[in-house]
Specification:
Blueprint: H1 3-6, H2 9-30, E1 42-45, H3 64-70, E2 76-79, E3 82-84, E4 88-90, E5 100-104, E6 110-113, E7 124-128, E8 133-136, E9 139-141, E10 146-150, E11 156-158, E12 161-163
Parallel strand pairs: 1-2, 2-5, 3-6, 4-7, 5-8, 6-9, 7-10, 8-11, 9-12
């Protein structure tokens, strides 16, 4: 019955290609490609760090802004103790199951200090525009305007001490 296939190699290859194509098609339908999400990362920032470092505990970044521009949902940023004379804006959002965390390193007190010179009038030393961001254990002081501004949804601000700012402490 299939003698014409056995005697004709080109037809054999054609039929084989059809069978393989059919199997591949069925496998794509039965097992659709699933998104693989990268595991959450933990980063470290220190007043003595360097933004060209990888953001590890032994080679931390220097600026909170570097962390703000790097984080993704589920990531944690630990601020080592010391004084940060800088402003930062977090715009990236976490999710309900993978919030972004910005926290003091255990046993240390990071201080974001504007020294009455930063940020520009109408701005804040730390601005949280993303959703699902948790901020904990940070001191914010001496802003030329405001200390902490939060306008994202589902953000959690815990144990943040904001004082001696020209304008509002936390808005």
């Amino acid at each position: 019955m299939f003698d014409f296939i056995e005697n004709n190699p080109s037809k054999k290859h054609f039929i084989l290609k059809i069978i393989i194509s059919f199997i591949l098609l069925i496998s794509f339908i039965a097992f659709p490609k699933q998104k693989v999400q990268a595991a959450p990362s933990t980063y470290y920032v220190s007043p003595t760090g360097n933004d060209s470092f990888p953001g590890t505990i032994s080679q931390p970044w220097k600026t909170i802004g570097k962390a703000a521009n790097t984080v993704k949902a589920g990531d944690t940023v630990y601020l080592r103790g010391g004084t940060y004379n800088q402003a930062a804006v977090f715009s990236t959002s976490g999710t309900a199951s993978n919030p972004i965390t910005l926290a003091a390193y255990t046993g240390e007190t990071p201080i974001i200090d504007g020294t009455r010179t930063i940020p520009s009038y109408g701005s804040y030393l730390l601005s949280i525009h993303g959703n699902y961001i948790n901020v904990s254990g940070i001191e914010i002081c001496n802003s030329n305007y405001g200390g902490l501004y939060v306008d994202g949804s589902y953000d959690v601000i815990d144990n943040v001490y904001s004082h001696h700012n020209v304008g509002v402490g936390i808005y």
